[in-house]
C-alpha cells in the first residue's frame, strides 16, 4: 500500500536510505576527518567556541587569510541524518576558502534521538545568530553571513533562512546573505513514513514547521542548490522541488546536478579552488 506518493514503506526507504548508494560511507567520512585535522594543524583555528550552553553547541572558526578587514563567513552544517557526524569532519574546505578571503566555520549541534528536530533547528539558528553578535571578535563581518551544508546540513541551512525566529535571537530578518545547499532534504513528510522517523519522531505538525519548502523566506536570498547525479531519484526530486518553490515565489535560484558525483563525495569539490562548486560558493558570496 502506498504511504507517500507512489511508494510503499519499503520502496520509500530504498529511496531515502542514501547510504545504500555506495559500498561504504566510512572512507568518505574518514577522509573528511583527516582533512579537517590537517586544517586544524596547518591553519589558524579558533576551536570549540561555545554558542550555547549545551555540550554540543560549539563551533570552529578558520579566519580568512591575507585580509586587512572583516571577512565574509562561510558557515557549514554537517550531514548525517541529524543523528551522526560532527564539525570534526567538516572543516575540510578551510584552506581552499580561507585562501580566497573567506572565514570558514563548521558547526556542531546535538543529535537525534537525544534531542528533537525542533531543538536541532533552534541550535543551528543560535549558531548563526552568535556570528552576528560575536563574529567581529574573530574577523567576521556580521553583514556578510552565508550558510551552507550537506544532506541534513542542507536542511538546517534552509531552515535558517525561514522567517519568524530572528527577533527572538535579536538578529535582523536578512541575517543570512546567501546559501549553498548540497543534497538537502526540504520536505520531511516522506521521512515520517520510513526508518528515519525511528529517531526523528515526526508528526504532521513537526513536519510542517521543520520543512523548508513550507517555510520560505520573505525576501530573496542568493541561493545555489546542488546534488550528485548518482543520488536517488527522491533526493534529486527534493532539491528540484525546493528550487521550484523558490522560483514560484519570484526568487532566483541556481540548480546544479553534478555529473559522476554521489551524496558522499560531492562536497570534496570544495577542496579544489577551480571546481564548479567552489566557484558557485564564491559567486554567491561575491568573491569570484
The helical percent reads 25-40%
How does the overall form come out from the CA principal axes?
Answer: globular
Radius of gyration: 18 Å
Order of helices and strands: HHEEEHEHEHEHHEHEH
The number of distinct helices, counting runs of at least 4 residues, comes to: 9
Q: Can you list the strand order of the major beta sheet?
A: 4-3-5-6-7-8
CATH architecture: 3-Layer(aba) Sandwich
Total domain modules: 1
Question: Would you kindly provide a written description of the structure presented here, covering whatever features stand out?
Answer:
The strands form two sheets. The chain has a six-stranded parallel beta sheet, with helices on both faces. The chain has a two-stranded antiparallel sheet with strand order 1-2. The chain has nine helices and eight strands. The chain has a single domain, classed as Rossmann fold (3-Layer(aba) Sandwich), CATH 3.40.50.1820. α4 crosses α5 (152-160). By secondary structure, the chain is α/β, with parallel strands linked by helices. The mean pLDDT is 97. A hairpin with a 7-residue loop joins β1 (46-50) and β2 (58-61). The radius of gyration is 18 Å and the shape is globular.
Kindly list the characteristics that best describe this protein.
two-stranded antiparallel ribbon; 9 helices; 288 residues; 8 strands; single chain
Short description:
By secondary structure, the protein is of the alpha/beta class.
